[in-house]
Amino acid sequence: MPRLSARVHLPSGRVARLSDEAARRAAAHARTPDVRPGGSMEALGILEAKDVARTDAGAPIDVRGLSLRDFHVLRALLVHAGVQAEAPAELPCENCGEAFRVAPSSLLEIAPFVDAELDDPELDAPFDHETAHVIPAIRVGTELARSIRIAARTVEEALPLFRAESAPTRITPALVVAMGITALGRERRASAIAKALAAAPDEAYQAVADCLYEAHYSARLVAVHRCAACGARNDLDVPWQREIPYEIGEPRKARRAFPDLDAFEAMVASAADRIYQARRVRNIDLIVDDGVPACDDGGEPLLGCYTPGGTDATLGIPRAPEIRLFYRTFQAEHRHDRSFDVAAEIDETIDHEITHHLHHLAGDDPLDEEEHAVIEKEAIRRIGKREAARRAGRGLASELAGFVRTTWPLFVIAFVATYFTFCR
């Protein structure tokens, strides 16, 4: 079990000094029957205990005065270090459906908080509390609200939300205020907003919850689990249990259905005829694969992939180049993104893979190099530059140690031969 980091940087720019010993001592007293294990109230009790959290100058931190973003980072670090308990999540892989069981916090990358690398323009961007953020329509009285405003909240202001985290989910005016929702469309009354959210379609409410997560949680509080079966990346919230409910309300009426396999294949064939002619290519096999999608090196399920032509290893006969589209990835994207345009994405994917084909024929594929560079850059963004350098150093040291372990007899033989030659 890792120890609680002694000095960490928070999203607001503040620095906190943490005592692992004091936190573990406080955790034993914070676990009471009326407090949910691993929850926000338990974290608050630990962080407010004597000597647990101090400023860089050594003064006790006013935990209740912290922004929710700062507080949730500290809470995530408590769970990551095992100071707070976390029940493992049992989930299916989003790509292949294979079940896995993992404690998300154990996979959290904490180096950016320790190394003061919270300067990524996307992951560390401040939330705009002054802007109305677009959401799917929610009926508020006789009007349809298509935007939401969320104010910053301190721990003190969010206490009603913390206290309700172990109770059955029900949106009340007090929780609306604690969440920081100041306007839903033109409506500003907390009672009317609570009533509208309670009756909101699932898709619309989940867009609100996403906005609340963005406002009150650092985007770095995500753990990545790679599926052992297919290699896909599964992103998991840390802490896994959050006080802002993600599912509530009535099911939304059915969206436009995703094309069945036959209809999808017909769309692909029609697009291919048009794009092959426009790009002046032919003799590239086109396959719609409805099995488990392949993943890129970063673990993202692919919409499509290109395989150069060659010789079949089994039959020893020439094999044509191939473009493969993964039906289930398109289906998943359509399910997760209400703006996903299936026909346009089919066109773009086929055109993209033809570009790979043409680069391959030319003997150099800069597009492939660019894609691998993006994957590497994304990994470094998540773990931090210093941690990436440390891991590279450990990898080099491990390779060197392995080299010495396997080749030391050769060094001994060379030394003995040199010794006897010198003696002669």
Describe the structure.
This protein has 424 residues and is an alpha+beta fold. The protein has helices at residues 20-30, 40-48, 68-80, 111-114, 159-163, 173-179, 190-198, 202-216, 261-279, 327-336, 342-362, 366-383, 385-423; strands at 7-9, 15-18, 53-55, 89-92, 99-102, 133-140, 143-150, 181-184, 222-226, 233-237, 285-289, 304-307, 310-311, 318-319, 322-326. It has a three-stranded antiparallel beta sheet with strand order 1-2-3. A three-stranded antiparallel beta sheet has the order 6-7-8. A three-stranded mixed beta sheet has the order 11-15-12. The radius of gyration is 27 Å and the shape is globular.
In summary, what is this structure?
With 424 residues, this protein is an alpha+beta fold. It has 13 helices and 15 strands.
**In whole angstroms, how far apart are the ends?**
58 Å
The rounded Rg comes to: 27 Å
Backbone structural class: alpha+beta
The helix content is 40-55%
Report the order of strands and helices: EEHHEHEEHEEHHEHHEEHEEEEEHHHH
Beta-strand share of residues: 15-25%
From the spread of the alpha carbons, the general shape counts as globular
What's the count of strands? Answer: 15
Look at the structure and give the mean pLDDT.
Answer: 89
Task: Give me the number of helical elements.
Answer: 13
Q: In this structure, how is the largest beta sheet organized?
A: 3 strands, antiparallel
Query: Stretches where pLDDT falls below 50 for ≥5 residues?
Result: 249-254
Widest sheet: strand ordering: 1-2-3
Organism: Polyangium sorediatum
Keywords: Membrane, Transmembrane, Transmembrane helix
Protein name: Metallopeptidase family protein
Transmembrane segments: 400-422
